[in-house]
């Protein structure tokens, strides 16, 4: 082909080659998401959501992630959603039990969450319960997906609690039902936010810290100021979902709502895999640098008997007049094929 003709053909094709049709057509839109801390395993799901939405809309819909409490304090993310200060946020139920009392069911000790599938199914059952939907709607909030936190363990400093009796008198970072369980052992629980914990341990205002194990402790560098860790206490977990403003969600065009549904499984898989990858990296390091504490089956059975069902029943009794607390607990067990 003549050089001039080739140049002309190239010029005509370049705009076409440079264009990438969006999988989902729609208007230009920006959503702001309020987060605390930095980019880490905990935020892998919301990061994947942001990435997928931008990719599939060819940049027309951008979900912008604001770390480090840039938009709101961690304890105030529901407040921000309630006034549409931002369109989405993550929040943790035990940061403000009075704002989400029904969602506190997921902090109860020794729930039957033995696998990632159990973790998913139990949380989905709680999110679907009318009481949880109603209490979040009061904040103009709706859940999208959980962050699927793994079971908690403790990192601490000072004398290692080699027996359950050794927990007496310790100040521990443990919220919700987990805090109640530790109180049964004679500990004093506190529910400091994640970003406050390092300083608390460093200054000696708390002796031990529960976080989702193992990513939480390492992400917040708790291993740098502690001397020991538990690896099989597994007393419970908590719940920190990605939440949307109901107003913002309802304002979305239909195709964007469908997109959120279509990418959900990818978001969930990414979140869970982030924890698995962190365990593969963190566990060898923790075993190298800290003293590992493992309890006997007899000790664990004693702990579950004292702080499992009794704590759950006390929570049910406290809340049954406000919402059907027993039904929520039963739904958790039913979701994993068990009866409460």
Task: Give structural notes.
The chain is built from 13 helices and eleven strands. It is α/β, with parallel strands linked by helices and 340 residues long. It folds into two domains: 24-147 and 239-279, 3-Layer(aba) Sandwich (D-Maltodextrin-Binding Protein, domain 2), CATH 3.40.190; 152-237 and 281-335, Bacterial extracellular solute-binding protein, family 7 (D-Maltodextrin-Binding Protein, domain 2), CATH 3.40.190.170.
Comma- or semicolon-separated keywords:
single chain; 340 residues; alpha/beta; D-Maltodextrin-Binding Protein, domain 2; globular
Compile the SSE list and pairings.
Elements: H1 3-18, E1 29-34, H2 44-56, E2 61-66, H3 77-82, E3 88-90, H4 116-128, H5 130-137, E4 141-145, E5 152-156, E6 171-173, H6 176-184, E7 188-190, H7 194-202, E8 208-212, H8 215-219, E9 228-230, E10 242-245, H9 246-250, H10 254-289, E11 291-293, H11 297-307, H12 309-319, H13 325-335
Parallel strand pairs: 1-2, 1-3, 6-7, 6-8, 9-11
Antiparallel strand pairs: 3-10, 4-10, 5-8, 5-9
Helix pairs in contact: 2-10, 4-13, 11-12
| Percentage of β-strand residues | 5-15%
CATH class of the largest domain: Alpha Beta
Count of β-strands: 11
Domain count, please report it: 2
Give the biggest sheet: 6 strands, mixed
Cα Rg: 23 Å
Which fold name is given in CATH as the topology of the largest domain? D-Maltodextrin-Binding Protein, domain 2
Give the helix tally.
Answer: 13
Strand arrangement across the biggest beta sheet:
7-6-8-5-9-11
Rounded mean pLDDT score: 92
Output the structural class: alpha/beta
The CA-CA distance between the termini, in Å, is 78 Å
Shape: globular
Taken in chain order, the helices and strands follow as: HEHEHEHHEEEHEHEHEEHHEHHH
Q: In CATH, what is the homologous superfamily of the largest domain?
A: Bacterial extracellular solute-binding protein, family 7
CATH architecture of the largest domain: 3-Layer(aba) Sandwich
